[in-house]
Amino acid sequence: MSNEKIRAIIFIALFFLIAIYITHRKGVDISEIKNNPAWAVGHVENVIDVGGKYPGSSIYYSYRVADSMYLSHFNYNGLIKGNADAFLGKYFPVIYSEKDISNSKLLLNRHDFDIFFIQFPDSLQWVEKYFR
Fold first, then answer.
1. Which of 3-12, 18-27, 53-62, 86-95 has the lowest mean pLDDT?
2. Alpha-carbon gap, residue 75 to 97, rounded angstroms
3. CA pair distance 31, 100, nearest whole angstrom
């Protein structure tokens, strides 16, 4: 096998392991973030449409704090199915807890900002059309 194929296999395996970890980690603790807020810039890595009782999309994002990279995801039930790819590769604010850096929330829409009593920026007005 060539080195490129080996690298590709390793990359895919790591992606799935990270996705499994993210899926099984604890949920977001909003009160902890509110009590110990810190900021980072998040990059949308992947978007997966979710069906079932609460259709929407799972948005997987990464953010860097100091020298460490963190990966997380959040399910957006109000995101109109089929439109989530508009966020792929884009950057958004992330608020996280200084006590537990892995406890984070990607601030994507007006509701996310309202949770933390933060004014919704004009620069993100374009996302509103993608939510119900």
1. 18-27
2. 19
3. 12
How many other CB atoms are found less than 10 A from the CB of residue 87? 20
Q: In this structure, what token pair is assigned to residue 52? A: 């079932």
Q: Name the residue with tokens 């999309």.
A: 57
Are 22 and 72 a contacting pair, CB within 8 Å? Answer: yes
d(CA 107, CA 59): 11
Q: Find where tokens 């895919």 sit.
A: 12
CA–CA separation, 39 and 37 (whole Å) = 7
For residues 37 and 7, give the distance between their C-alpha atoms in angstroms, rounded to a whole number.
37
Length of the chain: 132
67 has a pLDDT exceeding 60: yes
